Amino acid sequence: MATNVFFQNYNRYGNEANLLDDLVIESIRIYGVDVVYLTRSLEAVDEILNEDDLSIFNAAYDMEMYVKSVDGFAGEGDFLSKFGLTIRDQVTFTVANRTFERYATRIDPSKIRPNEGDLIYFPMNQKFFKIMHVEHESVFYQMGSLNVFDLKCELFEYSNERFQTGREEIDTYYDGIKTESVANLDSLNVIDPVAKNIFFEEEADSFTDFYRDWE
């Protein structure tokens, strides 16, 4: 049994499919926002733990995306935990396939789709969001094609990643955190009278290294 040859509703190469792509892109341009898409480069992948301790974000692309979470940030929100104030905002961005190809794939052919682990800089609250999952079938085969990617993101937690995009406002975004962390460590013995890190280190150096003597 075959479908009617006079009604090609799922012909992805038809004029209707191209028109639908154009309408999706135009809608995102009208109702979306300009964001910066940052791609991650893996430099030291641990094959056992399947993680990278030396991630570098070395490319930035300006593109328009639609904020699908129109009612505000999802997730657990802001709450007080035993570690202090914790913010776990989540947001979903929608980007057209052709938009991503135009701004990213044409510059770097290896970037054929958004990847988990990449970042999105959201200028409205000046925060970075990490892509946790890329859904490519959120709009299910209208006219036989897939038109958009849904990027499910959560607020990025900085852990000494390096930014080398060539954009000063992005590359220096976390410089204040680095300086503050180093200053706190250097002044720990002065601020906290209980801390005796230097004393313990000097005492430990005077002990016999049992492992070295055994060898």
What's the SSE blueprint?
Layout: H1 15-31, E1 33-41, E2 45-46, E3 51-52, E4 56-67, E5 74-81, E6 84-96, H2 97-105, E7 119-122, E8 127-135, E9 148-155, E10 162-163, H3 168-171, H4 175-186, H5 188-191, H6 197-205, H7 210-214
Parallel strand pairs: 4-10
Antiparallel strand pairs: 1-4, 1-7, 2-3, 4-6, 5-6, 6-9, 7-8, 8-9
Question: Describe it for me?
Answer:
- The chain has 215 residues and is α+β, with helices and mostly antiparallel strands.
- It contains seven helices and ten strands.
- It has helices at residues 15-31, 97-105, 168-171, 175-186, 188-191, 197-205, 210-214; strands at residues 33-41, 45-46, 51-52, 56-67, 74-81, 84-96, 119-122, 127-135, 148-155, 162-163.
- The strands form two sheets. The chain has a six-stranded antiparallel β-barrel. A two-stranded antiparallel sheet has the order 2-3.
- β7 and β8 form a beta hairpin.
- The radius of gyration is 24 Å and the shape is elongated.
- The model has no long low-confidence stretch (mean pLDDT 79).
In short:
The chain is of the alpha+beta class and 215 residues long. It has seven helices and ten strands. Strand 7 (119-122) and strand 8 (127-135) form a beta hairpin.
